[in-house]
Amino acid sequence: MLGIAYKATRSAIGAGTHGKIGEAVMSCGAKRQMTPAELKSARKSLGLSAERLAALVGVTRDAVCKWESGKRPIPRWIELVMYLLTRPVRD
Asked: What is the distance, to the nearest Å, from the Cα of residue 43 to the centroid of all Cα atoms in its chain?
């Protein structure tokens, strides 16, 4: 399911944008967590609504909104999902 969404968003946004977002996500390192603003920016650059991202990763829209507002910490696995969605596709 994520692959389909990824391919759809890849056609709408250039590979350079995805690479930069992916690098920013992974440069966070284990000691620094992705910020709510970084998550929101990555989601928007992929052309995803909070509701669509929630459906893709199997959580509620409310959970995404809480991560983006800073009311809840962003799980590491979400950081990794965002990294994978923003990586360039290699043939």
From this structure: 5
pTM, two decimal places: 0.65
Which value, in Å, is the radius of gyration of the alpha carbons in the chain? 12
Using pLDDT thresholds of 50, 70 and 90, give the confidence band for residue 87.
confident
What SS3 class is residue 71? coil
Digit-coded pLDDT (tens) for 25-82: 555 445 578 999 999 999 999 999 999 999 999 999 999 999 999 999 999 999 999 9
Is position 91 within any domain?
no
Domain that holds residue 30: 2-86
Residues, the chain: 91
Return d(Cα 3, Cα 62) in angstroms, integer. 24
Say how many domains are in the chain.
Answer: 1
Q: Is position 18 within any domain? A: yes
**CATH code where residue 67 lies:** 1.10.260
